[in-house]
Amino acid sequence: MTTPELYAQHVLPTYGRFPLVPVRGARARLWDENGKSYLDFCMGIAVCSIGHCHPRLVEAIRHQAGELMHVSNLYQNPLQAELAEEINTQHVKLPGKIFFSNSGAEANDGLIKAARRFGLKRPATDGSQRYEVVTFLQSFHGRTLGAMSATGQKKIQEGFDPLLPGFRYLPFNDVAALENAVRPETAAILLEPVQGEGGVNMATPEFLRAVADLCKKHDLLLFFDEVQAGFGRCGDAMAWRMIAPEIQPDGISWAKGMGGGVPIGAFWLNDRSVNEDGTALSSLLGQGSHGSTYGGNPLVCAASLAVLKEIREKELGVNAIFQEVRIRETIRLWNLPIVTEIRGQGLLLGIALDPARIPTPEGKTPALVIVNLLMERGLLVPPAGPDTFRLLPPLNVTDAEVDEALVTIHSVLAEF
Ligand SMILES: *Cc1c(COP(=O)(O)O)cnc(C)c1O
Description:
With 416 residues, this protein is an alpha/beta fold. It has 2 domains: 3-53 and 315-413, Aspartate Aminotransferase, domain 1 (Alpha-Beta Complex); 58-313, Aspartate Aminotransferase, domain 2 (3-Layer(aba) Sandwich), CATH 3.40.640.10. The protein has helices spanning 3-10, 43-46, 55-67, 78-92, 104-121, 145-150, 154-157, 205-218, 298-313, 316-334, 366-376, 399-413; strands at residues 22-26, 29-32, 37-40, 96-101, 132-136, 167-170, 186-191, 194-195, 201-202, 221-225, 251-254, 265-270, 339-345, 348-353, 379-380, 388-391. The chain has a 7-stranded mixed beta sheet, sandwiched between helices. It has a 4-stranded mixed beta sheet with strand order 1-2-3-15. Strands 13-14-16 form a 3-stranded antiparallel beta sheet. The radius of gyration is 21 Å and the shape is globular. Residues 103-105, 108, 140-142, 192, 196-197, 225, 227-228, 255-256, 265 line the site of pyridoxal-5'-phosphate. The site of pyridoxal-5'-phosphate (PLP) has 16 residues, from helix 5.
């Protein structure tokens, strides 16, 4: 049986999968089972941040697989400790503590739990526990019940009522709407500094600062979901620093690019005190309050250390900005009416299309029509919302690879 036939018989049909069957990868390239090669600007949706099968990552995994793959979080794990130190001192550069998960959704669930513990420690004026987390429309925080409930998109939540209570969604980048954001039960605000799945929308500096001010004023926690945007993809190690560097968040979640392809996520809580008695925010999830069997095991931590050191030592965030400038400049010079906007930062870019120019067959969005044509011509990119496709190449993508992708994109878009 073919792979698609096996899928049809044995795998839940939650994904509308392309017929492509990739079997091998190197750098920014993928090969399918027939030996056809593709330039990969999807990269497992911003996961393979240093390219497919980077020798440093492969070696780190090979070595660790032969030493010790998994050990319970009941014991001390030197690689987890080292990875936490690397993230804190070299990437976040704020005092805080980390919990390792296996995915982005789980990392966000951890932040939601932290908000509730905070709301217990710092109750409403009537003494009741605060618990509400305010998020934004077009956000994406994951598919677990908690993360899905935090996600401000109806289509993600459809048919799964009752959702987890305690979320409210406000329009993104709307400073005026923040006026009515806070209720007695509100404990935290969670947002993506650069929304990914929702169409690549950057928070404006004014908006991010207004959110941060609101959190200060009302004693709310400020959480950044950097699952897609973090660790160099937007230039700086932390995406929010590209927008408003002075802001100090209370919590951050990551996953995707931090492991380069192994399943690892994490959330971080600030060491700042939340009470007159000096209680640290990072102490509110204490012994027994949270856990994960796999979370941060030796194998994935060895991989993540190799990836984060490669990003830092080779300054791949600088390349992300350099290539962004080249991409923007080239597309601008094409002056094609089908391209309405280029959004995003670094190598989290959204190319917005004019849907009126793209005839769509039943059930297909304009973005999907373009994504399919690009795939036929050997370039893989993911859509982001109905009218936008994303460019998510590896952070070490070369000039030649970017140029090749741009030639393909031009050949497709010029036909509309
Ligand atoms: C992908 C993503 C998630 C969910 O991560 P999973 O690893 O799929 O659970 C959460 N937040 C953002 C911003 C994402 O892009």
